[in-house]
Amino acid sequence: MKKILIIEDEKDIAEIISFNLGREGFKTVAVNSGEDGLIRANSDLPDLILLDIMLPGINGLDVCRTLKSDSKTKHIPIIMLTARNEDIDMITGLEVGANDYVTKPFNPRVLIARIRALLRRSEDEKKSDDSPITFGDIIIDRGRHQAIIGGKPVDLTLTEFQILAILARHPGWVFSRSQLIDNLREDHQVITDRAIDVQIANLRKKLGKFGDYIETVRGIGYKIRETP
């Protein structure tokens, strides 16, 4: 049974989510503050976290940032929940490591579909080929979920790591934004073309001088150069 941690300060919303997830066979734990969410995430290690942005005390973005910077919790998928429907919120959430973004009010069936899609992707990632990918000074160890760049480990979010692995596995191949979305998620509504651009920009920054390895193919998408 998959365990979902709900970090939501609005009691009615948390109860609705818990009720609907329970009907679908999920086990849920709900807390109403960012501080409690961090404690439960570290003690319970849930399979997925639903995280409200507007929380009392530590807000959801800071909670996400903290979880994704901790080696113990960084691989737990996170879906951000917010009442605000602005691009800046979506982009900020993705930048701090969120895997998905749902705007309130939402249809519980849609939320559950997103949860299942994200859990499947997480499981597929675990079952996929774990052999390291080497591209020049970049080593991508899928088994350990670790990227070594120029001899030093680099902290990447799950999505950044997957994009790098996709590109590095096929040097010289051009991937459209849609193709990257197809490889990342089963539900195309989860990631937008603009979100892919944000992830690529963040990935290039983290790669430092090796960020130039990832090239933009205007009008199409992205590729990693054919040779380092």
Q: Given the helix and strand composition, which structural class is it? A: alpha/beta
Identify the overall geometry. Answer: elongated
Mean pLDDT value: 86
Number of strands: 12
Give the end-to-end Cα distance, rounded to a whole number of Å.
Answer: 44 Å
Q: Can you say what the CATH homologous superfamily of the largest domain is?
A: Response regulator
Work out the helicity level: 40-55%
Main sheet characteristics: 5 strands, parallel
The total number of structural domains is 2
What is the CATH first-level class name of the largest domain? Alpha Beta
Specify the CATH architecture of the largest domain.
3-Layer(aba) Sandwich
Number of distinct helices: 8
Strand content: 15-25%
Low-confidence stretches: none
What series of H and E elements makes up the topology? EHEHEHEHEHEEEEHEHHEE
Radius of gyration: 18 Å
Sheet with most strands: strand arrangement: 2-1-3-4-5
Features:
single chain; alpha/beta; Rossmann fold; Arc Repressor Mutant, subunit A; 21% strand
What do you see in this structure?
- With 228 residues, the chain is of the alpha/beta class.
- The protein has two domains: 3-126, Response regulator (Rossmann fold); 129-224, Arc Repressor Mutant, subunit A (Orthogonal Bundle).
- Helices cover 43% and strands 21% of the residues.
- The protein has a five-stranded parallel sheet with strand order 2-1-3-4-5, with helices on both faces.
- A hairpin with a 2-residue loop joins β6 and β7.
- α4 (87-95) runs parallel beside α8 and α6 packs across α8.
- The termini are far apart.
